Amino acid sequence: MKVETIEATKHKRMTKDPHGFFVIFLDQDRSEIVVEFYESVIKDEKSKKKVGTGKLGLVVCGTNAEALCHTISREDLVTRFDHASYLGRELQKAEVALRHGLKYEQDNEVVMRKS
Fold first, then answer.
1. pLDDT value at position 52?
2. What CA–CA distance (Å, rounded) separates 19 from 78?
3. Residue 4 resides in a domain
4. What is the pLDDT of residues 82-107, one digit of tens each?
């Protein structure tokens, strides 16, 4: 039986998760990763125009990317597989930065210092 092999590619366009979005940062004073979940963009029902950028719905804190992912999943905060994959990557980067005293900024590379 022949198995197909395909080349991995990135999506050219991001599809927003209708459930909401996340802001991830490090709290250096508490030595933990902070994940803020914001509910979807708020729209006026009559005009369908955006009237707000979403409201803070939940804050999840921890030091372990896997535990943060499990909590986010258990709380049903993600509805799209691509969004869950993105969060996993970002949380792993945040954990590496936290463990090694590196700078973390969401959507950017973590730069390892040369010894």
1. 62
2. 7
3. no
4. 999 999 999 999 999 999 999 999 99
Nearest to 15 by CA among 98, 78, 105, 70: 78
Q: How many helices (H) and strands (E) does the chain have?
A: 2, 5
User: 66-87: b or e for each residue (b if 16 or more CB lie within 10 Å)?
Assistant: eebbebbeeeebbeeeebbebb
Tokens representing 53 are: 């950028």
Total domains present in the chain: 1
Residue 8 resides in a domain? no
pTM: 0.83
Label residue 36 by pLDDT band (50, 70, 90): very high
CA distance 85 to 31: 24
Q: Is residue 115 part of a domain?
A: no
Is a pLDDT exceeding 70 seen at residue 115? no
